[in-house]
Amino acid sequence: MKNVITRKRVGLCLLLLAFSSVWADQGEGHDDGAGAAEHEHGQEESAGEANGHGDDLTLTEAQRRMLGLQVITLQPAASATRSLRLPAEITSNLYRTWEVPVRVDSQVLSRSATLGQHLEKGDPVATLFSAEMATLQAELRAVSDEWRRVRSLGRATVGNQRYLDVQGRYQDLKARGRGYGLADADLADIEKGKGDAGVYTLRAPDAGLVLSDAFQQGQWLAAGSPLITLVDEAELWAEAALPPQPGLRVDTGTPARVRVGETLVDGEVILSGHRLDPVTRTMEVRIRVPNENHLLHPGMFADVELVLPLSDNALVVPEEALTRGGDGDWQVFVEEKPGIYEAREVTPGQALEGARVVEGLPAGTRIVTRGAFFLASEQAKSGFDVHAH
């Protein structure tokens, strides 16, 4: 029995030795292949380092054609602009807005203008009564008659002093009437004796829309009380708040686009503040907005897009040229020479439409636009470092 067990152990040992010999032969063959590949790779790296492009990406001409690779030369942007978007509110053009007040203590007899009504210059606003106006009317009638007689007789007949005295009183009464809000046509009617004593009409000083009215029929109003606010809506303002940014400058005449809902209107900056509002900590920007079709009205909220020029030495690259490096920083691929590309870190600046201002590269640098994403993928697989030269 012991001899049988010994023979089984010997047979098992011989079988293990045979398998060990096969594994050894296969391992040696594998090492030879790996060693050859490593040797070949080492030779390629040595060749790349010898040419000064150890960390560059290289593409053949056929590969560049297949990718449609495009390269541009960075030059300072000529007449390039950027957009700045701001919230805004449509307001009345204060240069084309009129307050129509009562000029003398009066009672409202009737109104001729209503809220939202468009008035032409000279249209009646309201008919009023004033005791003071009655006095003016009586004096003007009397003096105007006297002035007609004196003027017809002539200076030589009535004497220079009386001539000048009557002329002065007549002109003074007409000036007072204009100060009370009377038009020249109304003064002419008074001189002719037309109209009721103390009754007069206030008229629109210019064409515009009745934006507000603050009176009722029969109401007594003191001198200076407003009747209506009249605004010419053919031209409005958009008031925007500019955030404080060092170096941010918005010049008068800067083009602007105003959006209210689906309505777009082109305007221009007519005022740019140089002082922060103490409450909002912003600067006022005022845009003139044409409104010939009266689509916009004061009180509407809007978005304003300002078109601002870039600095003369700004370098602008297409968005497709920017990729992320292994450390997450922005980079572009610089063409060292045709077919050889190196990643360079850049600092992105102002975003433009489909492009971006960048810093960190000199003018004249040739960078990859189309195909940059492919190079970034190859870079990630190769583990190359980004050079920030």
From TrEMBL:
InterPro entries: Beta-barrel_RND_2, BSH_CzcB-like, MdtA-like_C, MFP_Cation_Efflux, RND_pump_MFP. Residues 97-232 form the CzcB-like barrel-sandwich hybrid domain. Belongs to the membrane fusion protein (MFP) (TC 8.A.1) family. PANTHER family: CATION EFFLUX SYSTEM PROTEIN CUSB (PTHR30097:SF15). One of its GO terms (biological process) is copper ion export. Residues 236-306 form the CusB-like beta-barrel domain. Residues 29-55 are annotated as: Disordered. Transmembrane segments: none annotated. One of its GO terms (molecular function) is transition metal ion binding. Residues 313-371 form the Multidrug resistance protein MdtA-like C-terminal permuted SH3 domain. Keywords: Signal, Transport. It holds the Pfam family BSH_CzcB. It comes from Alloalcanivorax xenomutans. This is Efflux RND transporter periplasmic adaptor subunit. Residues 1-24 form the signal peptide. It comes from the Bacteria. Residues 29-44 have a biased composition (Basic and acidic residues). GO terms for cellular component: membrane; outer membrane-bounded periplasmic space.
